[in-house]
């Protein structure tokens, strides 16, 4: 008898896909184009609320199995994020396996490869809408968009909205105002000290909102030029410290992780001085359980995927002909959503991260029920 084991070296992946409570994905597409060297995975977690929306990550995964697993995890996260952003979109994500540098610099990215990828997005007929993510940029989306109608994150010259960090920072600021309301009874950061780790694209816009609101801001970044740019833009109200460790030990009211994931872990949570954590970085909780450690220390955590949804709100708007004011109005609602999450957390005696998940699951379940 022939061996019928899956050819993917990934029984774990198949388990996640078909059996695990964490999975339940609707569709996973493995894409290959031999001419350009494209190997990609497009994962659609849910289309209950509408076409699955999520970016394209271009990353040199250690194995194909890792790439599939990442696409599964990231697409599931997008279902939750889109649901709480109030978008009529389900969750999807694509990963392209390879070094995202251009071929000319020894990487895997070429126009031919991006077009081949765009044709796979086209083959889904609108069930999946793509955008930028780690390793892909506005100019890449301009190329991908030549092969289909379902690519966002394009440049303004090509009908897109361009850099999403402006609305992401605005949304984080709304989440922070809601956190201040919940913690101190006033939706303002006036007179508070806010520490920002990472003043890149999002972080530096966030500094501006906070200074305008009357907060004192303390910043840090591994790139000295990023810090210098912020200090040059703001002569008053902003100072810098050497690194993130020094930042979290500074006397802060709010800590805003705006660099990489995993900022909240067993080393950082015990030494945090801030009463609120609210920032743009994805996956701030290093692992499950950290949300409880924060709650035990009475630190109010504004769930990352809720407050950093301004960017996805922006790209979703592109599908209708981008209108900045309309997208900004939608991002303003992050204030109400964050407050609703804190209310639910309080009434159910659970951490806000869990309350956010429950609210998202509720919206998706209601859409599924309505479709029956
Ligand atoms: N750009 C968006 O629209 C958007 C949307 C949602 C979520 N996010 C998330 O927000 C975060 C920031 O995004 P961005 O677009 O501003 O990225 P960015 O790369 O422009 O900025 C990140 C900054 O963090 C700095 N940094 C890296 N490691 C650091 C460390 N250990 N300590 C201090 N600083 C460090 C980098 O030097 C850089 O200046 C990321 O986690 C991203 O996934 C961004």
Helices and strands in order, then pairings?
Layout: H1 11-18, E1 27-33, E2 38-46, E3 52-53, E4 56-59, H2 64-84, E5 90-97, H3 111-123, E6 128-129, H4 138-144, H5 165-184, E7 193-197, H6 201-213, E8 216-220, H7 224-233, E9 238-240, H8 244-249, E10 254-257, E11 276-277, H9 290-296, E12 300-301, H10 304-307, H11 310-318, H12 324-332, H13 334-348, H14 352-371
Parallel strand pairs: 3-5, 3-6, 4-5, 7-8, 7-10, 8-9, 10-11, 11-12
Antiparallel strand pairs: 1-2, 2-5
Please explain how this structure is put together.
Keywords: Branched-chain amino acid catabolism, NAD, Oxidoreductase. Belongs to the Glu/Leu/Phe/Val dehydrogenases family. Homodimer. This is Valine dehydrogenase. The chain has helices spanning 11-18, 64-84, 111-123, 138-144, 165-184, 201-213, 224-233, 244-249, 290-296, 304-307, 310-318, 324-332, 334-348, 352-371; strands spanning 27-33, 38-46, 52-53, 56-59, 90-97, 128-129, 193-197, 216-220, 238-240, 254-257, 276-277, 300-301. The protein has 372 residues and is α/β, with parallel strands linked by helices. Strands 1, 2, 3, 4, 5 and 6 form a 6-stranded mixed sheet that branches. The chain has a 6-stranded parallel sheet with strand order 9-8-7-10-11-12, sandwiched between helices. Strand 4 (56-59), helix 2 and strand 5 form a beta-alpha-beta unit. The longest helix is centred in the N-terminal third of the chain and has 21 residues, at 64-84. The radius of gyration is 21 Å and the shape is globular. The chain starts with 10 loop residues before the first helix and ends with a helix. Mean pLDDT is 94; it is low at 1-8. The structure holds nicotinamide-adenine-dinucleotide. Nicotinamide-adenine-dinucleotide is lined by residues 164-165, 168, 197-203, 220-223, 226, 244, 258-260, 280-282, 308, 311.
